[in-house]
Amino acid sequence: MSSFKKALITGVTGQDGSYLAEFLLAKGYEVHGIKRRASLFNTDRVDHLYQDPHVSNRNFVLHYGDLSDSSNLTRILSEVKPDEVYNLAAQSHVAVSFESPEYTADVDALGTLRLLEAIRFLGLEKKTRFYQASTSELYGLVQETPQKETTPFYPRSPYAVAKLYAYWITVNYRESYGMYACNGILFNHESPRRGETFVTRKVTRGLSNIAQGLEQCLYMGNIDALRDWGHARDYVEMQWMMLQQEEARDFVIATGKQISVREFIRLTAKELGITLRFEGEGVEEKAIVEQVFGDKAPAVKKGDVVVAVDPRYFRPAEVETLLGDPTQAKELLGWEPETTVEEMICEMVASDLDAARRHALLKSHGYDVQVAREA
Ligand code: NDP
Ligand code: GDR
Questions:
Q1: What pLDDT digit, counting tens, does each position of 11-26 carry?
Q2: For ligand 2, which residues put their CB under 6 angstroms from it?
Q3: DSSP β-bridge partners for residue 63
């Protein structure tokens, strides 16, 4: 084992966890991550960082664990004694939180408490710095635009309500026990590693599959929703920066720009060489192909309906608009988002189109390829 700083990442197998692990390893950290037991391998996003447990001097170590299990968390913390804990693990899907509200509360709210309490119980509160993955979903029904650190919260889902508890318990442990504990209030951030059921990845993957003839139509929920989308790779650096300050404080991380889901669809189609016309209103709205250029979408022709609205993807309560004001992060952390939404779409499409082309090739050789899944 190295003598550098030690970090423990919960949710290391997720989008952010994988980028953060890469980032910390490049900085010379010894990185420990918590992964859940699953019936299939679930470490795809960190497999490139894997180190054989039979060799010594490993600086990337995975531990089985779960945020619902305090004794497990206490044991891992007592073994690792990390300098920094990044609590990224969560049931992170807003729509799913309406289906599983109690589980979401247990993991996202109480899970945070379990970690903080374990740090305190082990007497690590003066050694271990704590990062909590807070979210722009706290603003929900927005009370002020753009949203900054002082904007009042109004959560609109079981997920956001659970994250509100996690936000305040983090503040409370900082104020009560002098812990270095802080919240990163991160606005939506995406990448080619984004889960397939979040809207951006659903769009880049779905339209790439359509371009290659693997699917016909993409069914979407509320495409009027407005979001401030950044790149996950840029955002994990700020998670680390927040733990390197003299004093712990909470930060908004955002780009300060927003677009609608509809615009995200239009930009993705353009990247695939397809121009779209949106017709109809509400649940009748559809996106129709106007023109195809280049060679990325051989299976698409003028007049095809490639996007339609399906109310099954509407949420019981929606967050219509989010736009962050990252001024504090700019001033105190030197934050400048590096990647524009267009550059991010380009990267996501390149990755999803590559996969779609491989699937289409297999299909054309008679292999049974199933790409469409409930998203
Ligand atoms: P992901 O959904 O990609 O990753 C979530 C991670 O948490 C996965 O590693 C998952 O494991 C793990 N996990 C889920 N439940 C448990 C549990 N009970 N015990 C232990 N681990 C668990 O999320 P992101 O990487 O996108 O987000 C990271 C964090 O940041 C989350 O807390 C999210 O709520 C928050 N956030 C995300 C934003 C975004 O736009 N991405 C914006 C603001 C906040 P497995 O791989 O096994 O499913
Ligand atoms: P969000 O992300 O709820 O903002 O939470 P998501 O990508 O799921 O939705 C963004 C917006 O798009 C609308 N939408 C759809 N969403 C999905 N998933 N599928 C669809 O078909 C669809 N059609 C329209 C949604 O209604 C919503 O308005 C993400 C998560 O990463 C959280 O963990 C994180 O805290 C917040 O971002 C900031």
A1: 999 999 999 999 999 9
A2: 92, 94-95, 135-137, 187-188, 197-199, 202, 220-223, 225, 227, 261, 313, 315, 318-319
A3: 34
Active site residues: 135, 137, 159
- Which of 141, 199, 235 for a ligand 2 pocket mutation test, highest count of atoms within 8 Å of Cβ? 199
For a substitution probing ligand 1, which of 40, 66, 88, 339 has the most ligand atoms within 8 Å of its CB?
A: 88
Q: What digits encode the pLDDT tens for the residues 300-332? A: 999 999 999 999 999 999 999 999 999 999 999
> Ligand 2 centroid to 299 CA: how many Å?
28
Q: What is the predicted ipTM? A: 0.99
CA–centroid distance, residue 91 to ligand 1 (Å): 6
Q: Tell me: the pLDDT tens digits for 61-98?
A: 999 999 999 999 999 999 999 999 999 999 999 999 99
Who lines ligand 1 at CB under 6 A?
10-11, 13-17, 34, 36, 38, 42, 66-68, 88-92, 107, 133, 135, 186, 188-189, 195
Parallel/antiparallel/unpaired status of strands 6-10 and 30-35: parallel
> What domains can be seen in the chain, in order of their start residue?
6-186 (3.40.50.720), 199-226+260-317+339-365 (3.90.25.10)
Query: CA-CA distance, 183 to 196, in Å (whole number)?
Result: 26
Instruction: Give this prediction's pTM.
Output: 0.98
Compute the distance from residue 198 Cα to the ligand 2 centre, in Å. Answer: 6
Distance CA 119, CA 82 (A): 10
